[in-house]
Amino acid sequence: MRKLLLIVTILCASFPSFVLAHSTGESFEKVIGAYKVDIGYGDAAPGEAATFDLKLFDASGESKIPFDNAWVRIERDGKTFFAGPIANQTFGVPAFSIAFPTEGSYEVSVRFTNGQNVLAEATFPYQVEADEDASIDSAAKKSVPVMPAVTTAAIVAVAAFFIGRVTARG
User: Does the model's pTM come out above 0.85?
Assistant: First the structure.
């Protein structure tokens, strides 16, 4: 049993953990009074979905502030493209994905509320640009997320092999 624990520990330590503060990588951050608004986002080309995650911290950025929901509004040239509430979740981070139809400059506004109380509001610019590398097949670009699944499957297969050997020895 000690060998099994050692093997699992070595396997877990051998592979890096890919943990980001945001599921999407980049973020807008703005301190407003006693709060820090933190919106994680990913880049998107026209017609492709961009994912945004919504977080609210104290001004130092150390403690998460609970909120019921966030009202999100996305505008372009003074016209509302999207508006709606994003409910906070018990587990994970409140997030949404949206496909922008055309390239250009958009404004993303977020208002965090707790009950009827508005905690913080912020507006950020968001740029949608045409895909710079249109020569890469879109199916090939979408296959990149498969790598974590392949790595996980390899880890499980190696662990199962060693568990079988340890169990067979008794």
Answer: no
